[in-house]
Amino acid sequence: MGPDLTGSQRSNLDYNLENLLDPSALVGRDYQMTVLHLRDGRLITGIIQREDRHTLTIQTANDTVIAGRTEVRSRSQSPISLMPEGLLEKLTDEEVRDLIAYLASPEQVPLPAAP
């Protein structure tokens, strides 16, 4: 649910470290979390994928939800990134080095084939 890293300042160590150490410092517009409070009491948090005059399509961590605009009581932007805080704290020094090396590599590793 995040951006394709290809071409995103991957070779810039400061950029990578800032995003890993403080992921909510600067959240790209396309990846800002939206919080929807629906009239039926549900709270939906995710990234708006599409919207038109009648519906909002929001990608949550687990689902894609389509809500009618008339169902939405309120809508707000969250300043919190999808990337978890403290990501590096659970990694060994070797794993941190491997992650930084991967992020700095010039090419995207192919995704595994779907089962």
Number of domains: 2
Residue-averaged pLDDT: 84
Tally of helical segments? 2
Q: How widely separated are the two ends?
A: 19 Å
Q: Helix share of residues? A: 10-25%
> Main sheet, how many strands, which sense, barrel?
5 strands, antiparallel
Computed over alpha carbons, the radius of gyration is 17 Å
Taken from the alpha-carbon principal axes, the silhouette is elongated
Ranges with pLDDT <50 over ≥5 residues? none
Q: What proportion of the residues form beta strands (DSSP E)?
A: 25-35%
Strand order of the largest sheet: 4-3-2-1-5
Order of helices and strands: HEEEEEH
Query: Which structural class is indicated by helix and strand composition?
Result: alpha+beta
Give an overview in words.
The chain has 115 residues and is α+β, with helices and mostly antiparallel strands. The protein has two domains: 1-26 and 82-107, no CATH class; 28-78, SH3 type barrels (Roll). Helix content is 18%, strand content 28%. The longest helix is centred in the C-terminal third of the chain and has 12 residues, at 93-104. The radius of gyration is 17 Å and the shape is elongated. 4% of the residues are buried. The mean pLDDT is 84.
